[in-house]
Design a protein that fits this description.
It is a single chain. By secondary structure, this protein is α+β, with helices and mostly antiparallel strands. Helix content is 32%, strand content 23%. About 8% of the residues have low confidence.
Length: 133
Amino acid sequence: MEQVEIGFRFDEGDDEGEALRSLYRHLYRDDSLERTSTVELREAPPLPLEGAMGGVWDTVNIVLTHATALSSLAVSVAAWRQSRPSTPPLNAQSNGTTVTVRTDDPEAVRRLLEALNTADNTDSGDSGDSSEG
């Protein structure tokens, strides 16, 4: 497996970036991801307004460096979603393709994340849980 970079973000329902920060903390502290990935919280660029401070937290970015890391990431994301039942849909993007995670089933999350890295991801077969971006 080549190195894979995946960005996670919420387009709606994330009050003040709380869900994004929670996801970041969860992934950052996950021991199964510690040696096989790098997790970062990235900031959106500041708005072009006079006197604007820095941007808001925009994306949790994770770089996977080992084949087993994708499965570990899927289990971790699913566990995080299970712990937060009111969490809005989570968008995952890699290589110009976006899938939307609406489930807390680890196997379904794994299939969605794998769809990001396949050459032909026109249909992930997960009943509307994916979309191309």
